[in-house]
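My main concern about presentation is that the manuscript never shows what a single data entry looks like. The format is easy to grasp once an entry is in front of the reader. For illustration, here is how one protein appears when written out as sequence plus structure tokens:
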Amino acid sequence: MQDRPTCEKCSQKPCAINYKKGDKIYYRKMCDSCTRRTKNKKRIEKPRWELSGYKKLDKCEKCGFSAQYHEQLTVQFVDNNLNNTDWRNLKTVCQNCYIELKIKGVGWIRSDLVAD
């Protein structure tokens, strides 16, 4: 029988059991306590468009839908390049238009702009 390793993070408690296969036991790198603490401290990363300073509008730029809730709108990249966060490449669209653009498999079409 093999010795149970100690936690890599706290070096005090034994590592948690990950799974057993036959007679062999596979262990995790950390104990249960350290694993729970690490999971709770995961950073929520902001999307690139938000980091660039772009703000969602209150209505869809494709169909003109006025959203009651902010979550009904999302940001569409005109050229489908997620690294291009220039404000001219970002458009606020409703979930329906977003799905429609994804199904068509094309980026934003310039003629789809709503005239104000």
Remarks:
- The chain has three helices and four strands.
- Strands lie at 17-21, 24-27, 73-77, 90-94.
